[in-house]
């Protein structure tokens, strides 16, 4: 064995403990594909959902127990930020998996590949949360995204699903190209020495003045590539179609976990590597954030499909969360985004659970299908109302606290105009969220009450209780969020 | 029986919410339980609030029954409550209107009783909360929470255009209040920059006034405008009033009553509590605009009310006009004007909710509110006609009834500050008398149609819920002193906050007037002092009958001055 390979192997064994959760996920997912899948007959595949949930729980515990550290030639690090966002990703994925059980049953589309792909994708997200090098950022994004492309097109006998997958794949591949090109420009600008985030910050500061255009275009391209991944305007075009075409649990997944991971990377890349060249990206990011809020909220007003509405609203929510990236204070920004994302995941999963429940009842995903839900299923309707009002940020629901911390941070950092825009557009968002409430409560029901499906209702109730508990303890959430990031 | 204290205040405030949660357990078919239950809860809350009227220390301008509990230490937010005279009056008005709003719903609400009374009770707690909070964060919370129950009350039990009205009310108010939130946070951070602590308490915001006055002019104006728009939408002032007619017309009677009596007062309360004391300099800068909008509101509201065919819409526009008058009084920045404005807030709460109830009565019987559909009702409904008459008179400011006192004070106050504005306002009052009396005439007198002849007079329940309003109208009209006393000290403090040294200047002016009257030319100060007094903001010209003169003149000059003062 050559000394080089020997050194590589040593490093791998020395640092392996940092990525045990990911290794665990990948091993289990591979084994699931073969031979574990043989354990269940064709009509028993739905059993994989609870098993996946158990795997996720184990992963979460493992993430919590992973010590701080940096390894693999400083390409991956575990710290409070990584751990916090990794937990968010696991939470988002767990919600999607729980939602998959019933829907895929009714579509007769249960397979082990579905769950294995979700787990592979999750391992990519976990890597992304801890990526501390532009190269590892890129690899993790690809690992995460390629699995999701497949999942979006999972209902392969449905044209919409395949179309959505294709669209997402093409645009995603395109954006990855921009991202990697930007990285290569920065690598060149930094003297061809490093892509490590911390080193890059120093190297860019020392870069000769003549290469400032190189730095600028590199930073801008990385920004564009990342904006594609979080679906921020004007790089959002893929998201409404992908959301609509994908199986609904995957839509719920796409709105939460990958965005949490991508925002963690956003924070780390822009808060660490590009910290010194903030003049290059602050203004463009301001415009991206502002445009996301405006377009996301305004476009959502005109939607008739609930999934598209939630897609546009998630664009707007990303716009709000980008305020935290703008803050320039890595820790405070991470706290505010983390808290917002946590709340958003719970509310969003709950809302999607209601959509899935209605789909399972043979009704569609159109907003009109919510008509009279308040009469037919008071519990479900009440929960949906709580989610929607919370998404709109109406106090005292917990969504308000999430927004409050984010906007407070933005004002503190002097982004007053942008915050005013955020607040006014969140008032616009109340319009379409209330439109759904209006359908549920103000319109008369058609048809009789149907019995409730157990799993979706369970998730809805849990999410609703979480939102209400979060509301009661909303004020303490920030302190708690702060503790998560200690160390 | 009960002594007024912080705990009792919280109990009275949160009792409706708790009652609502208890009622949640009752099966929804039990209509009677919801009606009687929520009425009892409201009455209990009213009774619990009464000790505060008697226990209030009228000599002090401090926040009374104050209590604070740590809530979000990281942000400096406390669950901080307490009341001064201004909040006390509005808080009592809210507990007073609560039972009436419930009682008037028994006949008119035909479906989904459980939800209805639940929302009503939640709304009550949110409104009461706004008036007791002494923390800006908490205030914002209560302020926003109010919107949701109101949205449902209008959206479910409203008229044909209910969806439009409900969403308009919601979005309008939300848009205004988010602007207010930005201004609030901006001041919060400014405060952190100057003092180094994070504090959301109202007192600390008030203490920021001098610091804010040193900021750039555009900063101050933006802050003032953000607060102004937030509150002006709620009041509503012209041109932010367009949600009001829609909301009023579509809302169920109780919704209109609460909207008129309490919700609109939130806006004026916001001005008194936040804009004026925190940003006095900027407010004075923008005052011509604010006064202008108030005056336009007075005249425009009255003129539009005049041509309305729908009784409820007429009353709604009359609210625009009356609240313009309130705002004019507040913006006079002198004790008469502010007291008059506050007083008129109470009066408007009493008389306009009475008017909405009266409209609700005929609507329940005929399912129409068009003035043209009625006529000659006084023949078949004498009790109703009498009560309607009293309330109409109270609304147009007839002496002996409550409206007179408030309007008079506002005119006095605004005349001292801007005589021309008082003249325009008087025109609005005359117009007010015209449209109210004209409506009364068209509805109550003239030939009666066959349908209207079948209309029954008020039943006992209806008389009972009108009675408190009528009694209150007479009581305040005949003996306003107790109410005045309650707001005396807080208003004095407020005027000092707006114009530091106002009372001292006024006392000096009074002293000089007294001296001049006695012919003691040697003792009067040089003419410069005469000029100095009005120049200090809008300090009033010497008024020998001003209460301040009574207090100050004897102290300064002894017996001769006292003679002069009378």
Short descriptors:
heterodimer; A: 487 residues; mainly alpha; 77% helix; B: 566 residues; 75% helix
- The domain count of chain A comes to 1
The average pLDDT score of chain B comes to 85
Q: What structural class is derived from the secondary structure elements of chain B?
A: mainly alpha
How would you state the average pLDDT of chain A, rounded?
86
Task: Work out the strand percent of chain B.
Answer: under 5%
What does the largest sheet of chain A look like? 2 strands, antiparallel
- Main-sheet strand order of chain A equals 1-2
Which range does the strand content of chain A fall in?
under 5%
What is the count of β-strands of chain A? Answer: 2
Greatest interface: A-B, 29 and 31 residues
Summarize the topology.
The complex is a heterodimer of chains A (487) and B (566).
Chain A: H1 3-15, H2 20-33, H3 48-65, E1 69-71, E2 76-78, H4 80-107, H5 112-130, H6 134-152, H7 159-189, H8 197-206, H9 212-230, H10 238-245, H11 248-273, H12 278-301, H13 306-326, H14 330-360, H15 373-376, H16 378-392, H17 398-412, H18 416-442, H19 454-484
Helix pairs in contact in A: 2-3, 2-5, 3-4, 4-5, 4-11, 4-14, 4-19, 5-6, 5-11, 6-7, 6-11, 7-9, 7-10, 8-11, 9-11, 9-12, 10-11, 10-13, 11-13, 11-14, 12-13, 12-18, 13-14, 13-17, 13-18, 14-16, 14-17, 14-19, 16-18, 16-19, 17-18, 17-19
Chain B: H1 6-23, H2 31-55, E1 64-72, E2 77-83, H3 85-103, H4 113-132, H5 136-145, H6 147-157, H7 162-195, H8 202-207, H9 209-213, H10 217-234, H11 243-250, H12 253-278, H13 280-306, H14 311-331, H15 335-366, H16 377-380, H17 382-396, H18 402-417, H19 419-444, H20 450-453, H21 460-478, H22 481-498, H23 502-518, H24 527-535, H25 547-557, H26 559-565
Antiparallel strand pairs in B: 1-2
Helix pairs in contact in B: 1-2, 1-4, 2-3, 2-4, 3-4, 3-12, 3-15, 3-22, 4-5, 4-6, 5-7, 6-7, 7-10, 7-11, 10-12, 10-13, 11-14, 12-14, 12-15, 12-22, 13-14, 13-19, 14-15, 14-18, 14-19, 15-17, 15-18, 15-21, 15-22, 17-19, 17-21, 18-19, 18-21, 23-24, 23-25, 23-26, 25-26
